[in-house]
Amino acid sequence: MTDPDGLDLLAARFEADRPHLRAVARRILGSPDEADDAVQETWVRLSRSDTSEVGNLTGWLTTVVSRVCLDMLRTRTARPEDPFDLPETVVAATADPEQEAVLADAIGPALMLVLDTLSPGERLAFVLHDMFAVPFPEIAEIIGCSPAAARQLASRGRRRVQGSAGADDSDLARRRTVVDAFLAASRGGHFDALLTLLDPDVVLRADAAGVKAGAAELVRGAREVAETFSGRALGARTALIDGVPGAVWAMNGKPRVVFAFTVTDGRVTAIDLLADPSTLAAMHIET
Fold first, then answer.
1. Spatial CA neighbour of 266 closest among 180, 214, 197, 165
2. pLDDT tens string 78-127
3. What is the CATH topology of the domain spanning 169-286?
4. DSSP-based three-state secondary structure for 3
5. Cα–Cα dist 189/187, whole Å
6. Taking the CB of residue 40, how many other CB atoms lie within 10 A of it?
């Protein structure tokens, strides 16, 4: 866009999205300076692009800054992350750009160290999906893979984060107790018991193989997830999935379906139903 007035309008629009873009870049890269560089590069690409046909400019910019961050992750040399004197917590994204900027700073050093052990694809998929609710087809386009592969990358990243060194034996034992209780309530059809174990905003996701077998791709909310499991999961058994308590359904001793649980503060916040053979083969499963 070369028209000065048009460029001024575009710059004003970009500035409105800058806090959101910086939040995305900060969470992906972990470095405030690199995040600023990524946002600046996004502006350069925007100023050189024809966006007249773009219906969702914020989404377009999010895609661009994510691609810039992915390139930076792939070329980054090993180095320690910048220290943060902030709480060690993961926080959900918000629609308020200013609040997003504040929340982006609430990523603690322990989490950043764990994120730094992920591959660039795992890190990008986990951050965009779990923190910003970006759909897997859009993540797949950014990374250059299929939506199913993007889902697997996010799941692996999530399991690595959940099973990090920050989770001690007592914490793992508490998570296993929650999974055991969930399976018992599911088998017995104890709907109210399931509700007490589920976070109100729990999400149940199924990969493409699971959907093909009859599972819903996405189920949101405690009541909906409880209804999905009540009276079911009869053959599922508690197992360690890549070191994190979950469940597995096996046939003739061979795992056919894995339920990867995310447990936070004693409640289930997410369940990933994974049935793709290549995904299961890459997992370390202890029953």
1. 197
2. 444 443 333 333 333 334 444 444 444 444 555 666 677 788 888 899 88
3. Nuclear Transport Factor 2; Chain: A, (3.10.450)
4. coil
5. 6
6. 12
CA 132 to CA 63: how far, in whole Å?
12
Helix intervals (H) in 53-204: 57-75, 97-104, 109-115, 120-126, 132, 136-143, 147-162, 169-188, 191-197
Sign, CA torsion 110/116/117/123: positive
Domain 4-149: assigned CATH number:
1.20.140
Listed by start position, the domains of the chain span: 4-149, 169-286
pTM for this model (two decimals): 0.52
Question: Quick one: tokens of 124?
Answer: 């990008």
The residue among 103, 108, 99 whose CA lies nearest residue 91 is: 103
Look up residue 160 and give its amino acid: R
**What does the alpha-carbon distance between residue 91 and residue 101 come to, in Å, rounded to a whole number?**
12
With CA atoms as reference, report the closest residue to 260 among 278, 272, 276, 270: 272
Burial 146-163 (b: 16+ CB within 10 A, else e): ebbbbbbbbbbbbbbbbb
Report the C-alpha gap between 104 and 21 in whole angstroms. Answer: 10
Q: Amino acid identity of 268? A: V
As a whole number of angstroms, the distance between CA 184 and CA 43 comes to 53
Rounded distance between C-alpha atoms, residue 218 and residue 148, angstroms: 13
Q: What is the tens place of the pLDDT at every residue in 34-80?
A: 999 999 999 999 999 888 888 889 999 999 999 999 999 888 744 44
Residue 222 to residue 216: CA distance in whole angstroms: 15
Task: Please name which of 260, 256, 265, 233 lies closest in space to residue 244, comparing C-alpha atoms.
Answer: 260
CB–CB of 58/17 below 8 Å? yes
Copy the structure tokens of residue 189. Answer: 């059809």
